[in-house]
């Protein structure tokens, strides 16, 4: 594993360079569970997993809460490639989720990292550490996030895909709420402005319903 001193000496800025030695959150995104781990380049620690019940905005918000509490400076999301290094359905789902995460957590840069075999590595570790078999599945997702972080730091972030550069700043302020209208993620502010615009144009369904009721009362 990359030692701590060398990691601290390799620090990038908000210009697309990987921040080694900076507090980093790893995300192992899954369709049912999301594993999390935290590190600054040495001894990554597991965090509590998050259950994914299909509400991507809610999952992104909960990860954002963790990142804000820990004052994370960069995020590494595992990209599940197949054995040939190609992207499949799971990789596409991960990229879609990252759009929600980008809105919920706009401050730190977000990187994608090849996470092939991270889950199997995590499962093997837990089994060899004498973890009770019935407890392995409870920890495997976050242990996979640990494996992602270790690999990320050991390789100095080489070949990481910068998905979103981040806007920087340690003062995260108020968390961003995320809404989904079926066409993709939007911030709560953008969603609200859209409703106001629709109302002004007379396209808001509720506004149209009120107008119909008024016309009916007028006819009576």
UniProtKB/TrEMBL annotation:
<feature type="compositionally biased region" description="Basic residues">
    <location>
        <begin position="209"/>
        <end position="220"/>
    </location>
</feature>
<feature type="domain" description="YqgF/RNase H-like">
    <location>
        <begin position="22"/>
        <end position="122"/>
    </location>
</feature>
<dbReference type="InterPro" id="IPR012337">
    <property type="entry name" value="RNaseH-like_sf"/>
</dbReference>
<dbReference type="InterPro" id="IPR037027">
    <property type="entry name" value="YqgF/RNaseH-like_dom_sf"/>
</dbReference>
<dbReference type="GO" id="GO:0016787">
    <property type="term" value="F:hydrolase activity"/>
</dbReference>
<dbReference type="GO" id="GO:0004518">
    <property type="term" value="F:nuclease activity"/>
</dbReference>
<keyword id="KW-0540">Nuclease</keyword>
<dbReference type="GO" id="GO:0000967">
    <property type="term" value="P:rRNA 5'-end processing"/>
</dbReference>
<keyword id="KW-0378">Hydrolase</keyword>
<feature type="region of interest" description="Disordered">
    <location>
        <begin position="167"/>
        <end position="220"/>
    </location>
</feature>
<dbReference type="Pfam" id="PF03652">
    <property type="entry name" value="RuvX"/>
</dbReference>
<keyword id="KW-0963">Cytoplasm</keyword>
<dbReference type="InterPro" id="IPR006641">
    <property type="entry name" value="YqgF/RNaseH-like_dom"/>
</dbReference>
<keyword id="KW-0690">Ribosome biogenesis</keyword>
<protein>
    <recommendedName>
        <fullName>YqgF/RNase H-like domain-containing protein</fullName>
    </recommendedName>
</protein>
<dbReference type="InterPro" id="IPR005227">
    <property type="entry name" value="YqgF"/>
</dbReference>
């Amino acid at each position: 594993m990359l030692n701590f001193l060398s990691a601290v000496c390799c620090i990038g800025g908000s210009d697309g360079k990987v921040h080694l030695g900076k507090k980093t959150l790893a995300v192992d995104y899954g369709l049912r569970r999301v594993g999390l781990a935290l590190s600054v380049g040495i001894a990554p620690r597991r965090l509590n997993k998050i259950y994914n019940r299909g509400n991507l905005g809610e999952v992104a918000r909960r990860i954002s809460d963790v990142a804000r509490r820990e004052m994370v400076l960069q995020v590494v999301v595992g990209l599940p490639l197949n054995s040939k290094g190609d992207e499949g359905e799971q990789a596409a789902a991960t990229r879609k989720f990252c759009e929600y995460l980008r809105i919920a957590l706009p401050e730190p840069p977000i990187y994608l990292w090849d996470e092939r075999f991270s889950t199997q590595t995590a499962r093997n570790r837990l089994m060899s550490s004498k973890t009770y078999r019935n407890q392995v599945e409870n920890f495997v997702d976050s242990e996979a996030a640990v494996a992602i972080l270790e690999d990320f730091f050991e390789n100095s972030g080489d070949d990481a895909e910068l998905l979103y550069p981040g806007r920087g700043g340690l003062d995260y302020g108020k968390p961003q709420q995320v809404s989904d209208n079926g066409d993709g993620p939007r911030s709560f502010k953008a969603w609200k402005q859209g409703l106001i615009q629709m109302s002004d144009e007379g396209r808001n369904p509720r506004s149209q319903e009120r107008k119909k009721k008024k016309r009916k009362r007028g006819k009576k």
